[in-house]
Amino acid sequence: MTTTTHPDYRCRPGPLHSILLGGSVPLFLGALLSDIAYSNSFQIQWANFAAWLIAGGLLFAGLALLFALANLIRAEHKGGRPLVYFALLLITWVIGLVNAFEHAKDAYAVMPAGLWLSVLVSVLIVITAWLGLSNLRNGGVR
After folding, report:
1. What CA–CA distance (Å, rounded) separates 27 from 44?
2. Which of 3, 14, 48, 54 is most buried when burial is the number of CB atoms within 10 A of its CB?
3. Residue 129 included in any domain
């Protein structure tokens, strides 16, 4: 009787990659909360806070995107969850960049598009971080 084992190749993010990915979540969520506060109070400083938080989130997510690309390049099997993770992070970053451009507008011109983009980016970054910090596999049976 022969036993065949299927190797389980894992492609987990390293510590710096995890810090950058995990750090982008509160930045984008903070931008969402700032947008909600701005839509309720009309205090322009909330829009400024949101713009700065989005810039920080883009920086962290952009660096995490570079790590995700490196992990995807060195992965033995290029499909599956590592590819989905990279694609989601790229989509999140691009929509976040559009959100940053939206927040560059003056005063209340940011609303309501900035708020909806912040909601979308926040949902996407939470899903992406969940996928990225969970068990990424690029091969194997499971």
Report:
1. 19
2. 54
3. yes
Domain that holds residue 43: 15-133
Phi, psi for 116 (deg, rounded to 5): -65, -40
93-138 per-position pLDDT tens digit: 999 999 999 999 987 899 999 999 999 999 999 999 999 888 655 4
Residue 2: inside a domain: no
Res. 4: pLDDT tops 50: yes
Whose structure tokens read 């490196």? Answer: 70
Q: What is the DSSP letter of 137?
A: B
Q: Are 13 and 67 in contact (CB under 8 A)?
A: yes
**Per-residue pLDDT, 129:** 95
pTM of the predicted protein model: 0.85
**How many structural domains comprise the chain?**
1
4 is a domain residue: no
Residue 51 bridge partners (DSSP): none
What would the pLDDT profile of 47-88 be if each residue is shown by its tens digit?
999 999 999 999 999 999 999 999 888 877 777 888 999 999
In DSSP terms, 27 is beta-bridged to none
Domain-embedded: residue 142:
no
Residue 89's alpha-carbon distances to 37, 127, 140, in angstroms, are: 26, 9, 23
